[in-house]
């Protein structure tokens, strides 16, 4: 008799019947123009205009790593809260975890940015790559670019 009376209390303590925590949205990025299947594609997404295009050690930044293959691939970011974000991609062809350069400054590997932000004498600014994320799923395409 006592056990039956405690069942509803135990269910509340375990969270049964409580609403699930609100999950964020999903951003699906179609990456086009990959020149080969070497290495991996590294992706980072941040709200930090000060650190963009870098994400390491940035609070709230999201990152992803996908095996490369020639042509097109998909990178997905889940549980994304509404806000202003920018995405940077690197085709890390030798999978060493960094952007390799020729002559100290020219990128040897592919790169891409949200809104296909223009690259001039260095990476684009956050304001050129930023997009608004609402409380709904979103899809975008980013073209991989190669200098060499």
UniProtKB/TrEMBL annotation:
Domain of life according to the entry: Bacteria
Alphabetized UniProt keyword annotations: Signal
Database matches in InterPro entries: DUF2141
Signal peptide (residue range): 1-20
Descriptive protein name: DUF2141 domain-containing protein
């Amino acid at each position: 008799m006592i056990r039956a009376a405690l069942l509803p209390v135990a269910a509340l303590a375990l969270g049964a019947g409580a609403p699930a925590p609100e999950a964020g949205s999903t951003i699906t990025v179609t990456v086009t123009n990959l020149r080969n299947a070497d290495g991996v594609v590294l992706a980072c997404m941040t709200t930090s205009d000060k650190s963009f295009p870098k994400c390491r050690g940035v609070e709230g930044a999201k990152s992803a790593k996908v095996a490369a293959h020639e042509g097109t691939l998909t990178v997905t970011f889940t549980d994304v809260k509404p806000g202003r974000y920018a995405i940077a991609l690197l085709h890390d062809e030798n999978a060493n975890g960094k952007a390799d350069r020729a002559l100290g400054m020219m990128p040897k590997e592919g790169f891409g940015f949200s809104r296909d932000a223009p690259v001039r004498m260095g990476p684009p600014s956050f304001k050129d790559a930023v997009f608004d994320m609402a409380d709904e799923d979103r899809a975008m395409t980013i073209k991989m670019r190669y200098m060499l």
